[in-house]
Target: Hyaluronan and proteoglycan link protein 1
Amino acid sequence: MTSLFFLVLISVCWADPHPDNSSLEHERIIHIQEENGPRLLVVAEQAKIFSQRGGNVTLPCKFYHEHTSIAGSGTHKIRVKWTKLTSDYLKEVDVFVAMGHHRKSYGKYQGRVFLRESSENDASLVITNIMLEDYGRYKCEVIEGLEDDTAVVALNLEGVVFPYSPRLGRYNLNFHEAQQACLDQDSIIASFDQLYDAWRSGLDWCNAGWLSDGSVQYPITKPREPCGGKNTVPGVRNYGFWDKDKSRYDVFCFTSNFNGRFYYLIHPTKLTYDEAVQACLKDGAQIAKVGQIFAAWKLLGYDRCDAGWLADGSVRYPISRPRKRCSPNEAAVRFVGFPDKKHKLYGVYCFRAYN
Model:
């Protein structure tokens, strides 16, 4: 009788379960885990953080388990990974990784990022000496064993968007040249969000320009016939996405505050372009860039009615207080043009960086 019972028991253990029972059993196990397991949650206390170039910022991120009051289960090491999302969300740029005592930062973030770790469940990222390129959305990912969760935080910078076209004139930049043009003028190519905020602040510009996601757009606050028609509504007009190598437009650049002094050089005579460059160097500075005059105008309220050379060979002047003979209708950085460098005489704007 004992032998017979043992044989039956073996048969039951090795028997293939019914497919329907297997499916139900599998679903039942998952259901128990979801309801009662210590599910890992990652939370950002603020979805958007504001800072400025040269400053320090903390991107908030905390993690905990839904059914426990402790940060981790203690069974697995916690791995924290911060990445930056690209404008098209197709790629991620590694920023910082931490697991146990191991820490690693990447690229331009090396030496500038670390975890705040104010508590055992704090995965907040501190970024020091903020750069223009740091603007964007960051993902905080926490992994413990087979569990993981993420949160996204946007880093916004105080700054100004300005349209830019080179000496060659309107619509002469492909996307890559547009990126470089902005970098050359102490700025970066603007994002759609930055252009949209600038439009809400009153930016009106009829020429279409590249944005960081590869789209071509322009902001209109005063609808008129040459700019989409006078009967259209104000807004940011979208030309769509174009070939980054072959298509040519202007560009919208973004810049923030700077660590230095922007000023109009008091000089006994007006200068050619080459003389202007040398005059700034003699004064312990460099000829200013377009991004620097826009930042001084927008962020510092710089106001000067004297037209002066800038590094790209253009002549401009910043007006914060509109008045007769000096931009009577609006506060703006007034554009004189790209005069003959060898024969035209103007003043010069200089920039001296702080150490």
